[in-house]
Known about the structure:
- The structure holds two protein chains of two kinds.
- By secondary structure, chain A is mostly helical.
- Chain A has helices at about 1-25, 35-50, 50-85, 85-100, 110-115, 120-145, 145-155, 160-195, 205-210, 215-250.
- Chain A has two domains: about 1-30; about 35-250, MetI-like fold, CATH 1.10.3720.
- In chain A, α2 crosses α10.
- The radius of gyration of chain B is 18 Å and the shape is globular.
- Chain B has helices spanning about 45-55, 95-105, 110-120, 140-150, 170-185, 195-200, 235-250, and strands spanning about 5-15, 20-30, 35-40, 60-65, 70, 80, 155-160, 190, 205-210, 215-220.
Amino acid sequence: MxxxxxxxQIIFYSAILALWQIVAMLKIWPPYLFPSPLKVFDTxxxxxxxxxxxxxxxxxxxxLLIGYGISIxxxxxxGLVMSKxxxxxxxxxxxxxxxxxxxxxxxxxxxxxWFGLNEKAIIxxxxxxxxFSVTMATYSAxxxxxxxxxxxxxxxxxxxxxxxxxxxxxxxxxxIISGLKxxxxxxxxxxxxxxxxxxxxxxxxxxxxxxxxxxxxxVIAVMITITLISIFTDKLIFGRIELGIxxxxxx
Amino acid sequence: MPAMLxxxxxxxxxxxxxxxxxxxxxxxxxxNDGEFVCIVGxxxxxxxxxxxMVAGLDFDHTGKILxxxxxxxxxxxxxxxxxQELGLxxxxxxxxxxxxxxxxxxxxxxxxxxxxxxxxDMVHLTKFKDSYIHQLSGGMKQRVALARALVLDPEIxxxxxxxxxxxxxxxxxxxxxLQKIWSRTKKTIIFxxxxxxxxxxxxDRVLVFSSLPGAVKASFLIDLPRPRxxxxxxxxxxxxxxxxxxxxxxxxxxxxEYDTKEDS
Lengths: 251, 264
Ligand SMILES: Nc1ncnc2c1ncn2[C@@H]1O[C@H](COP(=O)(O)OP(=O)(O)O)[C@@H](O)[C@H]1O
Ligand SMILES: [Mg+2]
């Protein structure tokens, strides 16, 4: 079955590439607006050889990991506090829910005024991008936790911190993981949006540069790179975590 | 020597449509060390509530609950509850579930792994020690819950309709096993059930609860030899007596569906 699927995929992508090559060869649009796949491949290889793409990836990933890491810690704590204290839930809860609807890039002007045109501003955007998803996911996971697990834990002598670490957190993990996954994709989008508007090396910047230089093959090469990174992180990191959860909790 | 468990004038009420509704009223009970007590009663008569109070999971009541003469406090592994829905932890393997309470007691990991293994062996789940809970059948889950509780060496074991959801064969074999374990470990067991035959088969004493407010309506000593089996003819005399009391209660509150037959 898997092989059949792979064959289909190979045919599908080859067809896209062939069609793309044919349209490019028809020269309906000038090559700088509609480059051939070979040209894009060439740019991709070139970008990696002269290290601009590699540095772009490293710089972007660094921002993403720092920002995302901070929003996991912060969002986890916020969500936990919201689920445990009624006053916080009634006040901060509504605010978080409201802020979640605001696209994180809208925070950029504020970030620029606060931090200036620098690394801090863009990391701030990434943090905001993931923060509210992580907060809401942690909050609702802990809030809707089956009380049975908590009772069972207390029954066997778990209290306070041990109860939190040994029972509440693991029991709430499946919905929290989906929140983390959503947070990751929001953080990634925020990063790209921020980098596009922000003239400092990174994947988004390489994308913007391609446009500035009227170099469509660079634009597409960077787009492909970004897509591949997204797919890899999704499959390798979250795919594995979700598999682990399914193995434990069952389908 | 004080009784293993003494319940004195315990009344419990919940807020209900703005009023206080008594769920349990003036419960008086004494349970001896090593006794196997079964409780039957219409649903909603407060059986689960009573077990929760003994376990310390529900403490808002009047009257006294004394464990060896001391008021019961916060929940602890000396009074362990096996919940109706079990509450096994799906994120842990069978082995780790059984080790859970030992870990809380800060037992060194080697020692607790060994002890947990002994109890897993005792309930015949050796082959499944590394399985996760969702991979087990209903009867196997019951066995894990039993092992998870017994490994902590509780003085009182509280079992809330544990075998209700099982098929008859699995239930019979768990009856055998529970009686064996009980005669070996001499735990004090309070066992709530819907099934009168099961109560008579397992208990030294069967208590019939009345409903709304719940109270001990009648108490029957079952002095039949052990091990008993659910199909033993000798049980029938007691079953009939208990049923008579219970039926009276149920007719009083006829809205409840009741399971008094052999069971399918
Ligand atoms: N937290 C609660 N708040 C209000 N009423 C409750 C609560 N828990 C139980 N009750 C009520 O108390 C009564 C006894 O419940 P329970 O102890 O679960 O009965 P049983 O186990 O005998 O079926 C029921 O009528 C139920 O509706
Ligand atoms: Mg009940």
